[in-house]
Amino acid sequence: MSKLDEARDILDALQVPAKQQNVMCCCVLLAMAGLKEDQCWVNATSNWIRIHDVIAFASDNYGITYAENSRETIRKQAMHHFRNAAFIEDNGKATNSPNYRYRLTGEMVKIIQSYGSGTWDENLETFLNNHETLISLYASKRTVRKMPVKINGSEFTFSPGKHNELQKAIIEEFAPRFAPNPECLYVGDTTEKDLVKNEGKLRELGFSITLHDKMPDVVLYSAEKNWLYFIEAVTSVGPMEPKRIKEIEEMTADVAAGKIYVTAFLDFKTFKRFSESLAWETEAWIADMPDHMIHLNGDKFLGPRN
Known about the structure:
- The structure is a single chain.
- This protein is an alpha+beta fold and 306 residues long.
- It has two domains: 3-144, BsuBI/PstI restriction endonuclease, N-terminal domain (Arc Repressor Mutant, subunit A); 148-295, Trna Endonuclease, Chain: A, domain 1, CATH 3.40.1350.80.
- The protein is built from eleven helices and eleven strands.
- It has helices at 3-13, 23-33, 51-62, 71-84, 106-113, 120-129, 131-145, 162-178, 199-204, 242-251, 268-274; strands spanning 88-90, 102-104, 147-151, 154-158, 182-187, 196-197, 218-222, 227-234, 258-265, 283-286, 293-295.
- Helix 1 crosses helix 2 and helix 2 (23-33) packs across helix 3 (51-62).
- The longest helix has 17 residues, at 162-178.
- It is elongated.
- The model has no long low-confidence stretch (mean pLDDT 88).
């Protein structure tokens, strides 16, 4: 059999659904194991790799081409299921981080290294007998890495990463200090884009509900002041530049509430990096100095311009 056929045979033996035994998933398994056509399964490895590396490996070693824009398809059809099955694990970075990686779990490496050997049947039986335990183990590891956050009185969890760390600080540190009795109307997560989205209240305020990539990272509302806070959490991109302000103004043309624009940063170093691109008449907040606000010009301090 070819290596692709052997990979399919392994996935079948591991009781993987037929949809996850396709060529793409077989390529993923081979790339994760670092196995070329002429190598034996005993040589399987477990190195941290990106989906980009999977695409390059499939092309270079098996002549199978996947476009770069197919990364999300690979993530959903292969990586997601393999991780849920405890075949692979991730390194805990945010999914949109350039440092996000996957690797085979130690148990998965052990079982595939024995494929074709005299210990395969025994190792397979052991793996399948402990499979639910493995799933629970790796699910538990992922849960521990998540960050708990209380939003509007309810418990949520953010996936790990600096962007979500900053969003957590906005909700727990910025909001109580600078937004009287705030309600969070919108916040996304790097893995769950619309973690909180109060469409009813947003519509009531005249907000045009749009796709998540047009929304600011966090939207707060103070009924006491009738103020809306549009907050961008900036760790690498996306400050409140004039162009961004214009986009939000267009989306909120029918909103009568006062509008406040805030760019939040984790530290002063990141603020300095973006300071020259920030729009006038906006605010900047730094999580390392939570009691202070930087006001960019204007005759009002922390208030809407309309």
